[in-house]
Specification:
By secondary structure, this protein is α+β, with helices and mostly antiparallel strands. The protein has five helices and 14 strands. The strands form three sheets. Strands 1, 2, 3, 4, 5, 13 and 14 form a seven-stranded antiparallel β-sheet that branches. Strands 11-10-9-8-12 form a five-stranded antiparallel β-sheet. Strands 6-7 form a two-stranded parallel sheet. Helix 2 packs across helix 5, helix 3 crosses helix 5 and helix 4 packs across helix 5. Pfam families: Bact_transglu_N (PF08379), Transglut_core (PF01841).
């Protein structure tokens, strides 16, 4: 499938700010099941020089600075991606195995998570066990915007019983790691032809590792494996590794963030 993504982020400040340093993870990955056909980044103010590098997790990162006073910054990332069903036989390194089995700030391993796993775990392969845990997450959580924030850890999500795709992903990651299954967070987009003319949002799901199949991509929000309708931006231990934008600035103004995402068939 050939998909086009336009992701516009606008930062507005209540007073002029200076020395703003911004980091972006908006460039789709070139990986198994996905080829990046094009990528363009535009900023307003214009003329910003964006430097690019690949982080330790293999994600494309752009960063830039604006030293002059400004009260608004708009970043628009436009991508075209050719997708197919995700399949990866790449074996993680021992360090990756370690990282993707450890608790993190948002994918916590505590008694609440372990109790959830005890009630949902089955015998079987990593793929079978992770799929059972994914279904348990879907049965336990209700999708509700505004019930959580980007800082909500997985035990709190379980206590609330509700959240958004990011929360579903963190709970599944915690559950898989508690059951000994390497798991990582995936950020990206999901194309839905029923919503093609509407503005969507970023999406999050989970990769789990099975020795026989390699990385398997599961979406606990929708209850299935990744298909050609998904666009992968970045992978990490949890959301903290892969926010689409983050940065710092000098100034007393308060920041307001607005995001507009459109995914369409090219």
């Amino acid at each position: 499938m050939w998909l086009r993504v336009e992701h516009t982020t606008t930062f507005t400040y209540s007073a002029p700010i200076v020395e703003a340093y911004t980091e972006l993870r908006l460039r789709p990955l070139d990986v198994d099941g996905q080829r990046r056909a094009s990528f363009r980044l535009q900023t307003e103010p214009a003329g910003v020089r964006v430097h690019e590098f690949v982080d330790h997790l293999g994600n494309g990162v752009g960063h830039f600075d604006i030293l002059e006073p400004h009260e608004q910054l708009t970043v628009t990332a436009t991508s075209e991606v050719i997708t197919s069903p995700f399949l990866s036989t790449a074996q993680p390194s021992p360090l990756e195995f370690y990282d993707y089995l450890q608790p993190t700030e948002y994918a916590v391993l505590d008694e609440h998570v372990r109790a959830f796993v005890a009630g949902a775990a089955i015998d079987g392969t990593n793929a079978e066990r992770a799929t059972a845990l994914m279904q348990a997450v879907r049965e336990t959580l209700v999708y509700e915007k505004g019930a959580t924030s980007v800082q909500t850890p997985s035990p709190e999500v379980l206590r609330l019983g509700r959240g958004v795709c990011q929360d579903f992903a963190h709970v599944l990651i915690s559950a898989c790691r508690a059951d000994g299954i390497p798991a990582r967070y995936v950020s990206g987009y999901l194309y839905d032809d029923a919503l093609a003319d509407e503005h969507g949002a970023s999406h999050a799901w989970v990769d789990v590792y099975d020795p026989d199949r390699g990385w398997i991509s599961l979406d606990p929000t929708h209850g299935g494996e990744q298909t050609e309708s998904y666009v992968r931006l970045a992978v990490g231990r949890d959301y903290a590794d892969v926010p689409p934008t983050r940065g710092v600035f000098k100034g007393t103004g308060e920041e307001t963030l607005s995001v507009r995402v459109n995914v369409s068939a090219a």
